[in-house]
Protein: H exchange transporter 3
Organism: Camelus dromedarius
Amino acid sequence: MDNRGFQQGSFNSFQSSSSDEDLMDIPETAMDFSMRDDVPPLDGDIEEDKSYNGGGIGASNRMMDFLEEPIPGVGTYDDFNTIDWVREKSRDRDRHREITNKSKESTWALIHSVSDAFSGWLLMLLIGLLSGSLAALIDISAHWMTDLKEGVCTGGIWFNHEHCCWNSKNVTFEDRDKCPEWNSWSQLIISTDEGAFAYIVNYFMYVLWALLFAFLAVSLVKVFAPYACGSGIPEVLSAAAAAGVSVAFGAPIGGVLFSLEEVSYYFPLKTLWRSFFAALVAAFTLRSINPFGNSRLVLFYVEFHTPWHLFELVPFILLGIFGGLWGALFIRTNIAWCRKRKTTQLGKYPVVEVLVVTAITAVLAFPNEYTRMSTSELISELFNDCGLLDSSKLCDYENRFNTSKAGELPDRPAGVGVYNAMWQLALTLILKIVITIFTFGMKIPSGLFIPSMAVGAITGRLLGVGMEQLAYYHHDWAIFNSWCSQGADCITPGLYAMVGAAACLGEYCLH
């Protein structure tokens, strides 16, 4: 097929085709391949035709001639080029129509036509299976690598801390995180976990592993990132994006909506169904592997039994205001830091920057247990609704009651553990805010979703505990006495953490 024939066929396909995908709405400018005065020609047109003045069918033909020429390198597009979705769909339609027309010529051509029609669904199936499997592998590996900074399982180095103690026979319920099979680095190196020297050894190994992981990540980015470019296949990219969001948040429909909104400006019905199919397969694969051990698709699974009350809209609004202020602060400071990185010598040494920031983060994070644990684990603990069997410091309340309703615990006075956790969380909040500003934009995968959720969840938990204690000690106040009686379960701090996380995450998505 020559280039001019392709161009003419493209227009005919738009005019005469009656398939579902052709009936989808297409932006007005997407149909017009002609060159307008305010649209500059693509690279190469200027070199070949110095007389370009915009407009006309000749300009359209020259543009289509150029688009048909292969671009050197991997794939249809070069690095950091935007994919022309309408052009790609037009080319695929012409290819499919040509195969369909030839299918009547021979049996082999008919088999080729059937396999071509089926190959798209097969590819979606493979994308879903691979996305779900990779997501499970990443979740399991991330947990294992986080625990590796603190110790190792002698019963099997591939076990993380939790899995290591599952089959231990020498562990009690109160100390279920402590088992003889799990050893800290000080126990392995100096055979003791007591004393200042053991603390220093564990401190040193934590920083060392953090630097090693950071160097590994930045090296992989440096080696492989230059070869990452657009594939030029809209259906594959749309389905892959939908499957990725599906396994990340346990929401197949949300993944399709994300792909529809962010990935492609041309989303025919066939692509919609295939993306949904890939997202479903990915979610089913992740659920079958069960990487979190809770039979859920997501790590942050919560279930609150106490409904919120109308007055609690006031602290919820305050959390929303905090999310907006923090989002504005982050955007301004991060842009200023990125500008400084580009205009100074700092930008010439990205690997050194990553290692220095990692070292500072590890040194500051180790003394505080809430900064030492992984951010995902921290958020999960902040969302938790405390029960009688929880051993976390956030659940260290004084139990001053005899009975309670099934599944509910009344508000209780905070114990020493809760007060210690509050100031530790306050320090964690400051560190998370500062570190997030400097890490986002470095030459390393350092996302924004989880750090932003952590900032909001910490703020929400602090406010929730404050409201809980206020309602407990002053339940006779006018704002409480109508719905919060003494001994009732009035305030759920975990709910405040979830609202705060949503507020901060929503602010990022808005910008």
Q: What stands out?
A: DSSP finds 19 helices and two strands in the chain.
